[in-house]
Amino acid sequence: MRFITDNYILKPRTEPRESEASLRQSLIELFPDRAIIFDLECRELKNGQPLLEYDAVVWNKESVLFIECKSPTTYRNYRAREAQSWRDVSKKIAKELGFSEYATIIVVKGCGEEGVRRKGGVKVVPLERLADLEVEYEKI
User: Fold this and answer.
1) What is the sign, positive or negative, of the torsion defined by CA atoms of 16, 87, 61, 130?
2) Parallel, antiparallel, or unpaired: how do β-strands 138-139 and 3-4 relate?
3) Which of 27, 29, 82, 98 is the most buried (most CB within 10 A)?
4) 105: which strand partners?
5) Which of these ranges, 14-18, 41-45, 76-80, 119-123, has the smallest mean pLDDT?
6) What are the boundaries of each domain within the chain?
7) May I ask the CATH architecture of the domain 3-139?
8) In the chain, what's the furthest Cα-to-Cα distance?
């Protein structure tokens, strides 16, 4: 299965990461009425170069949610500019796929009960608090 837009190709990674099993289970429980695809790689259509990855994409008819999962160490090293760029590409993909709303979140696993934060305009949620998530969709 592939999703092709005007500028991007989204395709599943060949090997799902076992380290993200708890994220997958949490999302299935949180969004039982939405479609979910896990472990997508995004490539630029014109040159086929890998651009970024999504650990999960959740959608319904009108809206799409892009999710990236990080360890505490990886999250600390993740720059706000990178998060902003990831968010911008996600918005372009959502628009090209015909959604009217989109959202992006970064889930940090193993960081305890710390509160919700933002990095580069992207909501950051501890995996332990994912069940309390209130998605803030933005109009495209």
Assistant:
1) positive
2) unpaired
3) 27
4) 67, 123
5) 14-18
6) 3-139
7) 3-Layer(aba) Sandwich (3.40)
8) 42
Residue 102, strand partner residues: 64, 138
Amino acid at 66: F
The length of the chain, given as a count of residues: 140
Tokens of residue 115, six digits = 């509160």
Residues sharing a CB contact under 8 Å with residue 131, sequence separation 6 or more, in sequence order: 26, 29, 30
Q: In sequence order, what are the beta bridge partners of 139?
A: 101
- pLDDT tens digits, residue range 90-131? 999 999 999 999 999 999 987 766 667 899 999 999 998 898
Amino acid at 68: E
Residue with tokens 């993740």: 78
CB 26 within 8 Å of CB 132: no
